[in-house]
């Protein structure tokens, strides 16, 4: 068994071992003590595969078990599902001495964790991830949330689990597309933190070294969480690919899954960074090649209205949620897979006057009305500004003007600054 200890506001262990699901009850009893009620939270598909085994393990360890199931999927990560879960806990008379077990992927972990953080002002919870994405990333670090119509993860809090139990055997039932989603997060860690790990992913598929991959990614995240639990500094490196990835997800109506969105986001920002000299062309090519090696998308064809609406929302959320950030909208940019570089401003044409900026906006907007402007994300000769503008609509001029007035630039983040 591999054990990774996480130091945060609540310290806990992440255990990785094949067959661990059947020993979950004993492991939880060692951490929390027996004689409590365990509320298992799972989507319907995962519940059908693994809930009975987990319930049996918990019962053998002396716990009373109740199980809450919901349809599953990002579209269920809502205040309505969250409220239904709270009502379920209250109906079964769970108290602060009881606990929740999140059995499933990232959506279940976020939902169950937020319920645990807020029910009766906080009860313990345990993560039992059954997707690669959850095992390597979302089950560790304490981020919990549900979505609003205005965007992902808009209501939530930081609340660390008491224990994380990773059984790699549960990944064997993942559909291929869901496995690929997790590979996007694995590649993100390799890009950010480790040249040897990057090379390992190129040489051997994740499926052939899954225990090692989980332990490596969790170890990297452990270090970032220990340094910046509440996501105000270095932990924001983990947002690589997520700003544009969330854009793609939202514009697709969440038909594009999270991992694919992150892959597209990494590709977009890698190309933009190479274009602006923030990373080398070789680094960009290596990132794109590894994404494609794992069958992940590196471009998007989402509709122009959706991108414009989302960009508008991003600016609005930045204003509403970050009133003290006077240095612009934060976007994580990979400067290199391997070599940290100093912080470099990633600017929106800073040398262009406001009048010239608005002239370009008007010209692009008129061309878009005539459907004369197109843009392929893989075109390295098109600037990031043009990329965003060419996917807009009549409101883009006002949006870009707002960005210009707010300081007119994005920031790059890199390891080592």
- Shape summary: globular
Q: Please write the string of helix (H) and strand (E) elements.
A: EEHEHEHEHEHEEEHHHHHHHEEHHHE
Overall radius of gyration: 22 Å
Beta-strand content bin: 5-15%
Largest sheet: 7 strands, mixed
* Count of individual helical segments: 15
Distance between the termini: 35 Å
Count the strands? 12
The order of strands across the largest sheet is 1-2-9-6-5-3-4
pLDDT < 50 stretches: 304-312, 314-319, 321-330, 333-352, 371-397, 407-417
Q: Can you walk through the features of this model?
A:
It is globular, with a radius of gyration of 22 Å. Helix content is 47%, strand content 15%. A 7-stranded mixed β-sheet has the order 1-2-9-6-5-3-4, sandwiched between helices. It has a 3-stranded mixed β-sheet with strand order 10-12-11, with no helix packed on it. Strands 7-8 form a two-stranded antiparallel sheet. The longest helix has 18 residues, at 176-193. The protein has 15 helices and 12 strands. The protein is α/β, with parallel strands linked by helices and 417 residues long.
């Amino acid at each position: 068994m591999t054990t990774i200890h996480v130091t945060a506001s609540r310290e806990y262990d992440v255990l990785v071992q094949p067959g661990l699901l059947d020993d979950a009850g004993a492991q939880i009893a060692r951490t929390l003590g027996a004689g409590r009620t365990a509320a298992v939270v799972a989507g319907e598909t995962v519940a059908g595969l693994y809930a009975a085994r987990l319930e049996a393990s918990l019962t053998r360890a002396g716990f009373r078990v109740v199980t809450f199931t919901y349809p599953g999927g990002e579209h269920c990560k809502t205040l309505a599902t969250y409220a239904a879960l709270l009502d379920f806990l209250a109906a079964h008379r769970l108290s602060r001495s009881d606990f929740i077990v999140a059995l499933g992927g990232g959506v279940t972990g976020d939902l169950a964790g937020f319920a645990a953080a807020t029910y009766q002002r906080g009860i313990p919870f345990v993560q039992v991830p059954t997707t690669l994405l959850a095992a390597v990333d979302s089950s560790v670090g304490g981020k919990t949330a549900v979505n609003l119509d205005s965007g992902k993860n808009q209501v939530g809090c930081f609340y660390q689990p008491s224990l994380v139990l990773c059984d790699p055997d549960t990944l064997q039932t993942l559909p291929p597309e869901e496995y690929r989603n997790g590979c996007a997060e694995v590649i993100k860690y390799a890009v950010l933190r480790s040249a040897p790990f990057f090379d390992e992913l190129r040489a051997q598929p994740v499926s052939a070294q899954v225990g090692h991959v989980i332990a490596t990614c969790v170890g990297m995240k452990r270090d970032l969480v220990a340094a910046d639990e509440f996501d105000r500094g270095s932990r924001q490196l983990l947002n690589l690919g997520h700003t544009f990835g969330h854009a793609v997800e939202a514009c697709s109506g969440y038909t594009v899954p999270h991992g694919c969105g992150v892959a597209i986001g990494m590709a977009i920002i890698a190309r933009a960074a190479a274009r602006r000299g923030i990373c080398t062309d070789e680094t960009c090519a290596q990132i794109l090649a590894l994404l494609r090696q794992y069958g992940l998308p590196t471009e998007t064809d989402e509709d122009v209205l959706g991108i414009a609406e989302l960009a508008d929302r991003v600016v609005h959320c930045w204003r509403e949620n970050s009133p003290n950030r006077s240095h612009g909208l934060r976007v994580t940019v990979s400067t290199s897979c391997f070599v940290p570089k100093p912080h470099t401003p990633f600017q929106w044409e800073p040398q262009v006057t406001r009048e010239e900026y608005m002239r370009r906006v008007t010209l692009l907007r008129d061309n878009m009305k005539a459907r004369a402007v197109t843009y392929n994300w893989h075109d390295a000769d098109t600037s990031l500004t043009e990329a965003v503008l060419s996917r807009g609509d009549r409101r883009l001029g006002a949006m870009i003007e707002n960005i210009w007035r707010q300081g007119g630039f994005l920031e790059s983040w890199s390891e080592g600054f």
